[in-house]
Write a structure and sequence with these properties.
mainly alpha, 66% helix
């Protein structure tokens, strides 16, 4: 007497909403034919397309963040060119903006840079 209870469908739980809008005829037939060939409902095709669109927008936003942030980091790093002693290097590292590194996922790189410099400074003091 073990009956399996089926979970309710989205339609039964009112999770599906009606969309009423008009589209150009050629788009309608392309969508209908595509959905039919994939054995999907037209609404399912639109939902999947919208998910891909959202992912695309997120990727574009991330790329724009990189495009804006990397030149700012490069500009800060230009001051590291040339010879300098450890104290000068420490001042320059302390002037770096950690939020720029964090913005593009380089927090670990920034922290390693700071820790390496700290170790170099310790070694420099013990060698004196």
């Amino acid at each position: 007497m073990n009956q399996k209870v089926k979970p309710p469908t989205p339609k039964q739980t009112n999770q599906i909403k009606q969309l009423n809008f008009k589209v150009q005829e050629d788009f309608y037939w392309k969508l209908k034919n595509f959905a039919s060939s994939k054995r999907l409902k037209m609404g399912e095709v639109l939902e999947k397309a919208f998910k891909f669109y959202e992912k695309r927008e997120a990727i574009i936003n991330e790329l724009n963040t990189y495009r804006q942030t990397i030149p700012a980091i490069e500009k800060q790093m230009q001051s590291f060119q040339g010879n300098m002693n450890l104290k000068e290097l420490e001042l320059k590292v302390n002037n770096l903006n950690p939020s720029l590194f964090k913005k593009i996922g380089l927090t670990t790189t920034y922290l390693v840079l700071k820790e390496t410099l700290a170790e170099c400074l310790k070694l420099g003091k013990t060698n004196r």
